[in-house]
Amino acid sequence: MADGLRLAKVEAFDLYILDSKLPDGRGAELCVKIREFDRATPIIFYTAEPPEQLRSELKDSAQEYVIKPEFDDLEKAILERLKRCVRKLLDSILHFIPGGKYLALC
Predict the structure, then answer these.
(1) Total structural domains within the chain
(2) Distance of CA 74 to the CA centre of its chain
């Protein structure tokens, strides 16, 4: 969470993708902190928690929620590969936007 907050303060991103559970904290807490200085950049939560559970923590700071399904080991490996593909896709799309950047913490 600390690394994400530090990056968000020094870089301009076009999109934030956050998970509710980060290695050093809660994504909801990071989302609220980002909103203290950046009200415009969209934030999407990619999480296993239902949006209703997060809404009280988020104070309506996130725009969208993508719910993670339950996975066994093979499906987890596939999901990790999919995450890498999505990041590459976002990189290629944002390549055409001058200075386009995103921050994915999931």
Answers:
(1) 1
(2) 23
CATH number at residue 38: 3.40.50.2300
pTM score above 0.70: no
Q: For 8-36, what is each residue's pLDDT tens digit?
A: 999 888 888 888 888 888 888 898 899 89
Domain assignment of residue 99, given as a range: 2-105
Secondary structure of residue 13 in the 3-state scheme: coil
Instruction: Tell the burial category of 44 from Cβ atoms under 10 Å away from its Cβ (0-12, 13-18, 19+).
Output: middle
Query: CB under 8 Å to 96, separation ≥6 — which residues?
Result: none
Q: Are 31 and 13 in contact (CB under 8 A)?
A: no
